[in-house]
Specification:
The chain is of the alpha/beta class. Helices cover 39% and strands 19% of the residues. Helix 1 links the parallel strand 1 and strand 2. The protein binds uridine-5'-diphosphate-4-deoxy-4-fluoro-alpha-D-galactose.
């Protein structure tokens, strides 16, 4: 059985990846500092608690386990926070990743899968957004992810690192078995916030602007279920293990939903009223972000299966209903 080091494997997407890897016959080994992840979400292999800048710890891991590949999910991922505290974003998302890559090279572990983001594109010049779209991020979060993508290109050219940069659109939904789900503190994402209103934990959902040039005036996003993200990672992993060396894919559905559509489906699924209030647009929020996923479908042979809005909100609702305080 191949060991896969999953950095950030106690987080929302990383923990689901571990479950999926385990089902597919791989052994996940989790490295997580638990600053934003949850110990209770690590169930499919060992949890090593620590920092990915900790050289001694990385050397211990690489010498103890025969690691076939590293998947890197550990990052700060809030756009607003990155504008307020860019230093933390460059340190956590770039400097720590560089340390991890250096130790991988030292241990001759040469396969790396990176959680990138649609934020590397910045304000879109056309929709849908293909992988060839110019990369002009407009905030430190997006820039931190682009910097790592550029490091990967250079490490590939010079050191023979094989990598996948997987650019997620809006990760959403929960484990269809109900074991794992979203528990961010603080929560800023639309779907969990809307479902917290449905549960009576918040009074109303704020809609960030209804004056965009979209069908109902609210922002449009491409929501992708964590199960579909996991299946794309596995396909990319197997291509890298099979000899491919540079994989860059958008992971989205190619279909966008407005904020109002999301809230409407959440009302239908939960059967709760979900009061709303329109407030100002959030600075730096593009009106529309929708992926072209043609490349992933054609080359990765990936098909998103769980990412219709109903499956996303249904699985998320089941999770929030049964875990009203998250993992606590
Ligand atoms: N929104 C609201 N009210 C809320 C929260 C969000 O109206 O209370 C809106 C946002 O304006 C946006 C949509 O709902 O139009 C989705 O917002 P999220 O916060 O759920 O997600 P983002 O689109 O802001 O974030 C995603 C990824 C980031 C990535 C970013 C790029 O989660 O990692 O897109 O813009 F950086």
């Amino acid at each position: 059985m191949k060991n896969i080091l999953v950095v950030g494997g106690a987080g929302y997407i990383g923990s689901y990846m571990c479950k999926y890897l385990s089902r597919q016959g791989y052994q996940p080994i989790v490295l997580d500092n638990l600053s934003r992840g949850h110990q209770q979400a690590v169930k499919w292999g060992p949890l090593i608690k620590g920092e990915c800048r900790d050289t001694d710890l990385l050397r211990y891991i690489f010498s103890t386990y025969r690691i076939a590949a590293v998947m890197h999910f550990a990052a700060f991922c809030y756009v607003g926070e990155s504008v307020e505290n860019p230093s933390a974003y460059y340190f956590n998302n770039v400097a720590q990743t560089l340390k991890l890559l250096q130790e991988m090279l030292r241990a001759n572990v040469l396969i790396f899968l990176f959680s990138s983001t649609c934020a590397v594109y910045g304000e879109p010049v056309g929709i849908p957004i293909a992988e060839t779209h110019p990369q002009r991020p407009i905030n430190p979060y997006g820039r931190s992810k682009l910097m790592v993508e550029q490091i990967l290109e250079d490490f590939h050219a010079t050191y023979g690192l094989k990598f996948a940069s997987l650019r997620y659109f809006n990760a959403a939904g929960a484990d269809p078995d109900g074991q794992l789900g979203e528990d961010h503190r603080p929560e800023t994402h639309l779907i969990p916030l809307t479902l917290q209103v449905a549960l009576g934990q918040r009074e109303k959902i704020q809609i960030f602007g209804d004056d965009c040039a979209t069908k109902d005036g609210t922002c449009i996003r491409d929501y992708i279920h964590i199960q579909d993200l996991a299946s794309a990672h596995l396909l990319a992993l197997e291509r890298l293990l099979g000899g491919r060396c540079r994989e860059i894919f958008n992971l989205g559905t190619g279909r966008g939903y407005s904020v109002r559509e999301v809230i409407k489906v959440a009302r239908e699924i939960s059967g709760r009223p979900i009061p709303e209030e329109v407030v100002q647009r959030r600075p730096g929020d593009p009106a529309v972000l929708v992926s072209s996923n043609e490349k992933a479908i054609a080359e990765l042979k990936w098909t998103p299966r769980y990412s219709d809005l109903y499956s996303i909100i249904e699985t998320a609702w089941q999770w929030h209903k049964t875990h009203p305080t998250g993992y606590r």
